[in-house]
Amino acid sequence: MNDNISRIIYWVATVAMCGVFAFSAQMYLRNPEMVAGFFKMLNYPEYLVYPLAIAKILGIVAILSNKSKLLSEWAYAGFFFDAVLAFVAHYVAQDGGSMFSIIAIAATIISRYLWSKR
């Protein structure tokens, strides 16, 4: 694959991934009661709302800054597991909210794969 095309695909996937997680984090911080209600409905502990929001913000910073390979690797892993667990929870609940999770999973895999090729 051409290096320029690879770079473009990397940035599109990375921006999409960061966009999904940034949207999620701002929703967690701006409307924690609503998110806690969703967590309760999906059988997740409500106390995870703020730690997950903070972890998502720190993960975005780690990936976009690319200062530490270890932190970036952990951020990619965290995003992947968060998106997979969100997909499973929405699928089991059959609430129709799994599309963002699918986008996040695909974007995370593509971004991570191309990040390792850089």
Structure explained in plain terms:
- The protein has one domain.
- The chain starts with a helix and ends with a helix.
- The chain is built from five helices and no strands.
- With 118 residues, it is mainly alpha-helical.
- It is globular, with a radius of gyration of 15 Å.
- 84% of the residues lie in helices and 0% in strands.
Helix-and-strand structural type: mainly alpha
The helicity comes to over 70%
Low-confidence runs of at least 5 consecutive residues? none
Largest sheet: none
* Sequence of secondary-structure elements: HHHHH
Number of DSSP-assigned strands: 0
Counting structural domains, the number is 1
Report the portion of residues in β strands: under 5%
Beginning-to-end CA distance, first to last residue: 13 Å
The Cα radius of gyration reads 15 Å
Mean pLDDT: 93
**Number of DSSP helical runs:** 5
The geometry reads as: globular
